[in-house]
């Protein structure tokens, strides 16, 4: 009887420990989701240190590049960082602040990765 209680207690304890470990690791990743996503999706600019375009010039370029659908420009504190062009609620494009060129999208896999991590954290990757 004592062996049965010991082994069942050990087995249940290990299963609970694995669940807690999984929740801890996925929770840690989700804590830094915004920072990692921002880092992965921000492309590098081409001519660091050159003369920047004015906000009006960048707004005009953003309007042309988005077909007039640009809703906002976001400037980072770093003068060499790209300018984020908000298009609607869910779409962001990046402009080179020195040349006005549209920068290529990056970090598409990061959003899919964090979606999977969130699914594992919330539902243990089960469906239904």
Polypeptide structure, described:
By secondary structure, the protein is an alpha+beta fold. It has helices at residues 2-31, 33-41, 55-65, 108-123, and strands at 70-74, 83-87, 91-95, 102-103. A hairpin with a 6-residue loop joins strand 3 (91-95) and strand 4. Helix 1 runs antiparallel to helix 4 and helix 2 (33-41) runs antiparallel to helix 4 (108-123). The radius of gyration is 23 Å and the shape is elongated. The model has no long low-confidence stretch (mean pLDDT 88).
| Number of separate strands | 4
Strand content: 5-15%
Note the main sheet.
Answer: 4 strands, antiparallel
Alpha plus pi helix count: 4
Average predicted local confidence, pLDDT: 88
- Widest β-sheet, arrangement of strands: 1-2-3-4
Query: Which residues sit in consecutive blocks of at least 5 with pLDDT less than 50?
Result: none
Fraction in helix = 40-55%
Based on CA inertia axes, which overall geometry fits? Answer: elongated
Q: For the CA atoms, what is the radius of gyration?
A: 23 Å
Structural class: alpha+beta
Quote the distance from N terminus to C terminus.
39 Å
Q: What is the succession of H and E elements?
A: HHHEEEEH
């Amino acid at each position: 009887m004592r062996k049965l209680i010991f082994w069942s207690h050990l087995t249940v304890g290990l299963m609970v420990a694995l669940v807690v470990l999984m929740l801890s690791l996925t929770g840690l990743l989700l804590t830094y989701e915004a920072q990692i996503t921002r880092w992965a999706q921000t492309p590098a600019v081409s001519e660091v240190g050159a003369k920047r375009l004015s906000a009006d010039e960048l707004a005009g370029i953003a309007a042309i590049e988005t077909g007039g659908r640009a809703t906002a420009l976001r400037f980072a504190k770093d003068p060499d960082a790209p300018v984020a062009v908000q298009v609607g609620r869910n779409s962001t494009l990046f402009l080179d602040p020195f040349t006005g060129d549209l920068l290529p999208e990056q970090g598409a896999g990061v959003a899919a990765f964090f979606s999977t991590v969130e699914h594992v954290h919330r539902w243990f990757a089960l469906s239904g």
